[in-house]
Amino acid sequence: MDTSEIRKKYFTFFEKKGHTVIPSASLRPENDPTTLFVGSGMQPLLPYLLGEKHPRGVRLVNSQKSFRAEDIEEVGDNRHTTFFEMLGNWSLGDYFKKEQLPWAFEFLTEEIGLNPEKLYVTVFIGDETLGIPKDTESVQIWKGLFKEKGIEAIDIEIGSEEDGYAKGMQQGDKEGRIFYYDAKKNWWSRSGTPDKMPVGEPGGPDSEMFYDFGTEHNTSFGEHCHPNCDCGRFMEIGNSVFMEYIKKEDGSFVQLPQKNVDFGGGLERIAAATNGNSDIFLIDTLQVIIEYIEKTSGKKYDDTRYTHAFRVIADHIRAAIFIIADGVVPSNSEQGYFVRRLIRRAVRYADLLGVPDGVLAASVTAVSGTYKDQYEILLEKGGEIAGIIAAEEEKFRKTLTRGLKEFEKLSNNNISGNDAFILFTTYGFPYELTEELAEEKGISVDRKGFDVEMKKHQELSRSGSEQKFKGGLVDHGEMSIKYHTATHLLNQALRNVLGNSVQQKGSNITPERMRFDFSFDRKMTDEEKKKVEDIVNEHIKAAIVVTNQELPLEEAKKLGAIGLFEEKYGDVVKVYTIGDFSLEFCGGPHVTNTSQLGHFKIVKEESISAGVRRIRAVLE
């Protein structure tokens, strides 16, 4: 099956189970300072998992665009990609394990026809120190489901991933089907294991589903194979998260008032399973890029000398296309940094294959075509996206010329990690290029030193950097909620002063300050900034009641409600109103009266990319 067919079947299946289809959120998170990109299906729905009422009800289904920057260096094997779609079905305080697991099993085995003999599952082994019990309930449900298929499902306690390599899958003379793992493998929260979760963060045990491709175990990964083995035999294709706990200030865990289900199924991985081939790059949405590169380069994907390069190009270009479509342009900071890095790595590997200039930008048309049923925006913005990629490729080639000159200055001696890092950050040299050129000259590069410098850099600019984005709206703290409400006042004030062409392009909120990105093509004057401040503060002093209501989308538009990031919305939306001044689509939460906000002050206004400005402000 191709990805479009699987996605449609998934939506139809869960609609029959009483779910409402909701659109994917932007890859640019709204008011979530913990990360630069949406990297999971639950991220945009966090307010509703914490109890906020969703306008479309308590049973939802979607396919969420996701991007994980931390996987850039992993791309090249048969399963890692930076961009992916996560099929999700959600219960917001409605059904739980006894409904979710049978539905997931039915979808995989009946709707898309996976052989149940090739499915294996994992569950949480529990943590007595935290008072979180072993998930025996899920085990009993799984045993019943496999029994219906004529399969005896033996459960085995594994523990850690390392224990898996030592113990293997056998219990006596029988192979296991259900495996207990620790929190590193079978606990889910955005922050990882329970010990890493901040206070107020929801999480819970999960049950993962793996597809067995039947390949021979590679003992270089460990003595024995098991579902979480990295040898390639097993691939995780789905994960039912039972979000039933929240972390308290004393580090203990208590039950959430609202128990939720968060299922995430990797669309690309499920497609690979239906193909019976563990190479994820052979699914339709990636293969279309590979075939295009084959035609233009004269190289073949199945030539192992070039397979790695093909995979990097296919992944990076697809990811860049989607991020650019959501309003991010290449730059040297934050989201733009990753777009730039993706395109430049793709250019470098394209050069290794002998791909002509301009081919990467031209591939936008092929990619957009494979997603036309779900993401029309790729077709609508295709020309713009291709232009951005082409411009970045041209800029990179000029940078490479300067970088080669700098490399020549350094290459009389072995290259230090710091020098390699400067070549990377200042001249855009991927580490692989520095290493390759050094090898040609018979000198070495300090990879460990480079990694140290890169780690320092990532702590400042990478997704999930807690040092940079300490706190945030996700904690629903008082100051974060105040700043969230203030963004609505600021948005409208900017439109009043600068014109209605101004559109919000992003925001980032912590308990200490707000950051607001908006479209505008020049620096604001001091007079304009003062006018914006005055307008916001006037509406704070006016003590205006903040209200919200759920409305049909078209009715909300007729009323003049504005939305963020050119997002797609469902048929019913939540609209927040601040008197007759501000009317916006938003999930909340907000203060009940503007008088609670304090005094608004703009600290800085600056450019962050072509046509996009940023305001940093505080409430005093």
Quick summary:
The protein is of the alpha+beta class and 620 residues long.
What would you say this structure looks like, in words?
α18 (478-498) crosses α19 (526-541). By secondary structure, this protein is α+β, with helices and mostly antiparallel strands. Strands 1, 2, 3, 4, 5, 8, 9, 10, 11 and 12 form a ten-stranded mixed sheet that branches. The protein is globular and about 80 Å long. β6 and β7 form a beta hairpin. The termini are far apart. It has helices spanning 3-16, 46-49, 97-111, 136-148, 161-167, 183-186, 267-275, 284-297, 307-325, 334-353, 359-362, 364-370, 376-380, 382-410, 417-427, 431-441, 447-461, 478-498, 526-541, 553-558, and strands at 20-21, 59-67, 83-92, 119-124, 155-159, 170-171, 174-175, 178-181, 187-188, 202-212, 234-247, 253-266, 504-510, 513-519, 546-552, 572-578, 582-585, 600-609, 612-619.
